[in-house]
Amino acid sequence: QMRLVESGGGLVLAGGSLRLSCAASGRNLRNYAMGWFRQAPGKEREFVAGISVNGGNTDYADSVKGRFTISRDDAKNTVYLEVNSLKPEDTAIYSCADELPSADRIYYRPNEYNSWGQGTQVTVSS
Question: C-alpha distances in angstroms, 56 versus 1, 33, 76, 93, 104?
């Protein structure tokens, strides 16, 4: 099982930016599709962004399109999430997850993913 560790979260003002990282160990990240999810207090975990195993396909939740960018660096065994133009409603714990894919596509549901990191807190103040 792959171990995933997120970092890069913090407290920012509305309109600010962060770069979240998800470092993998134990397996080669190049064999996995990856996703970023978030969970705010009292809310269910929701899909934020996904990237296919070959990196050719990416997709985003409507609420973050145009503001967030997912990317992967398989040589560094790391997936990134650039978060820009942050809003208070983006406040949540952000977690990455991996899926051993059957196709070069995006996976949207949490139960499709295998390993999860502990998450990194993003707090946006107005």
Answer: 24, 11, 18, 26, 8
Q: pLDDT by residue (tens digit) across 11-30?
A: 999 999 999 999 999 989 99
Torsion on CA atoms 82, 87, 90, 91, rounded to nearest 10 = 110
Long-range contacts of 70-78 (CB under 8 A, 24+ apart): 70/34, 70/36, 72/29, 72/34, 74/28, 74/29, 74/30, 76/23, 77/23, 77/24, 77/25, 77/28, 77/29, 78/21, 78/22, 78/23, 78/24, 78/29
**What does the pLDDT read at residue 37?**
98
The torsion angles phi and psi of 85, rounded to 5 degrees, stand at 50, 50
